[in-house]
Amino acid sequence: MTALLTLHAVTGAIAILFGRRLGRRAVYVAGLGPLVTFAWLIAEFGTILDREPITESVRWVPRLGLDFDLRADGFGALMLLLVAGIGVLVFVYSNAYFPPNKEGLGRLIGLVGLFAGSMVGLVLADNLLILYGFWELTTITSFLLIGNDHTDARARAAALQALLVTGAGGLAMLAGLLIVGHEAETFSLSGLIADPPAPSTALTVGLALVLVGAFSKSAQWPFHGWLPGAMVAPTPVSAYLHSATMVKAGVYLIARLAPAFAGPVGWWRPAVVTIGLTTMVVGGLRALRQTDLKLLLAFGTVSQLGMMVAVFGLGTADAVAAGSVLLLGHAAFKAAAFMVVGALDHAHGTRDLRRLPRPERGQRPVALIGAIAAASMAGVPFALGFVAKEYDLEALQHSPWAPGLVTAAAVVGSALTAAYSLRFFWGSIGRMATESPDPAVAARRSPPGLVVPGLVLTAATFVAGVVPDVLDRLVSASAASLRPTVGSVHLDVFHGFNLTLVLSLVALGGGALIFALRRPLEPVLALGGELPVTAATGYAAALRALNRTADRVTGVVQNGSLPIYLGVIVLTAAIVPGTLLLSGAWNDGDGAIVDSWSQAAIAALILGAAAAATALHRRFTAALFLGVVGYAMAGLFVVRGAPDLAVTQVGIETLTTVLFVLVLRRLPDRFEQRTAAPMRVLRIGVAVVVGLTVFGLALATGAEDPATTVSDTFIERAYPDGHGRNVVNVILVDFRGFDTLGEITVLAAAAIGAVALARAGRRPGGVRDSAAPPPVPLDRITVLEVSTKVVFIALSTAAIYLLLAGHNQPGGGFAGGIVAGAAVALRYISGGIESVRRLSRSKPWTPLGVGLITAAGAAIVPLLFGGSVLESGVHTLDVPVLGEVKLTSALAFDTGVFLVVIGLAMMVFESFGDDPPARSRDTAGGTR
Prior knowledge:
The protein has 928 residues and is an all-alpha fold. The protein folds into two domains: 2-534, no CATH class; 711-760 and 789-917, no CATH class. Helices cover 69% and strands 3% of the residues. The protein contains 37 helices and four strands. The strands form two sheets. Strands 1-2 form a two-stranded antiparallel ribbon. α1 (2-17) packs antiparallel against α4. The longest helix is centred in the N-terminal third of the chain and has 32 residues, at 153-184. It is elongated, with a radius of gyration of 35 Å.
């Protein structure tokens, strides 16, 4: 199953990346995923229908309950049949629907393939968090597919609405899944259903949040407005995503959870069934007002999704079986109906039922498909839709909650369904045309590729409607996987003359009557559009409120004031831990503030230097006192026996001091007190709060005595696993290598950003002409030049030594890079910016990029030899004179870190090393 997901990802990516070269062949490439998935499902059908789930698991982060667990049971197989089977037909349809020279065809088809893979993962996932990951992938791919035509403002707006509504619902669902998983003490979906947690307030909140996500995904009232807007997407996309697959994701989740929670959680059935039936009626009413056949089907989909939510939401044995039949029937007839609309649009250039002509000879197969799809949608006997409706009404009659009310609402919704089905069919064959077709558009014969997929679907719905027992094993396995107490399910066309049959006939007759009286009933049907609050107006109002709130918040926290930026950041970082400190959520312990008089002396020096840096008015002097703070911290590291940290801190402080000097040359010499007194008080308050929080956290951390100490594990495993005796270095390049890789990536991004900003801020006349000869430094001192060259060589040698020895002795790539950076700073002091540029041949980003590539390569190479990412290897060489030399793969990673730090130092000088423009005496002031 993992291979199926990989295949979808690879083929989808190939179609996107090489779509321009592949042309229409991109359809074959991206369609390979659904085709192979369908073939795999057919091969495994026997096992699954025998109620033996197929499972697959890849351990990932077991302590967080995050394992890549996949499970194909009966209900999963039913959903997979829709995703893969209809997916194959949609790709065949797309091959005929889109012209071969369509711009961006590869991207569009590749996204459909990626979406198909996301749906496959969603219905197979047996871990709540993995399910959520695939859930969000469907949201993202749907957003990209709806907004495929980025030049169309309607497409962009519809894509944004779909993303905001389903994305916000997804975030709510994530919170709910975390709560439910915590209450159940497992994130296994099958484990949760088999042994659900006892009802509690936390579980109630969690389930409510999960339902919000499910309702938004499956377009339930009041979140249904995004689905009709999504109809701006190409018709094949609508046939696949917005009728047969993605919109059923919420239904799928409700179907999984309802058998476990519908009974114990008292509010579940009233809430879910009410939302579902309300959606069914609202969607049906809106469908009857549409003149665009695609919008008519969209609102019809909303209505049918409401019926599915109501039926599955009951969670009873009858309901899960009836819902399974409805899922199959709806996917078949609705996808076929969308394909009919696409064929009509392709032939006549319009989907407006007021302008569609009657079918000519070449369009009669399309009309036949539309007739069968509409009959199944309406629930006409001998169609699968009729069988589904019969079983749904039967299940609702036995609802544990308000059976009479829910049955009556379902009959009303079914009558509306029959009415809009008639409207769809009558309009598709030109019987509702009130305008002449555009004479400039000549009707075209539909090619086989637009007809055959619809014929396959309607043939399936007809055969299953006449001989429904062909679905017995599939429906039985599906229902049993949701509710294990379900036995064998037998589907019949005719159950005898009973109340269910009467209700079905009443719904059909009522639908025919509503359609016949559509003109007199038009004012009644239009009432929904005249309500003060609708889904569309609610979304627009929410979006306006969100934008206004964002503007106000941004105006406060992003107003261009650096002190406010800093205050927001540090206060945010202090509030949460500070609250925990005040609540006493830590161990008292016996941690001491200082262990010796030497520590107390250094701490006093740090406090004094920090106070001086705050009180002084000269920028340069304040920067020097900040340097004193840094060097004193290095002294603390030495006293505490951490030479690695001390070396690194000294190097960083040296480079930081040089950087301060470079920047301060471009700023006024002094601070000026221009801040109002209330603002000064506020700043002092923020500083005190943050300082006390950090101090308290340090004390609380020192007082903690965890049951298992990570440090002990690192010390024990450093040499056996990391092949190094310097535990700090082994942690950086092996145990926590991912962190280090992320950190050097951030360093590289910061360096590139600094250079870009510095260059953008230079005046036009200040940009160096690469063809001009470098300036000759003035007042050259021979002794200084010679001594700096000697020291430069010594520092460079020391840097290389720290790099090579750092795995077993104090040092490492970072410390070595810092020392090399200090050597670069010395070179700058001696010869100016041109001497630094000569080191890198005016390309300081080269060591930066080479370092990143080296570190990433060292992390990935073990995979080629069957290892894991960042797995350490060791190789021993017998070198003459030197003897036995041990080389570890961590050295390559450390070398990458070394080069990144050197590149960072060079780019600092590239950014700020040029001589600043002369300042007049009038600019000697500044703000503090």
